[in-house]
Amino acid sequence: MNGASRSRGVTLVELLVVVAIIGVVAVAATPFLSSANPQKLDYAASEFASAMRFARSEAMRTGEPYGFREQTSAMWIRVFRADTGTSPWDLVYDVYHPVSRQLYDIRLNDHPLAAADSLSHNSVYRGTCDKPGDVYFDGNGTPWCANPETVLLEQFVTTLSLGGHTRVVTLDGISGRVTVR
Question: Using CA atoms, how far apart are residues 162 and 36, in angstroms rounded to an integer?
Answer without folding.
Answer: 6
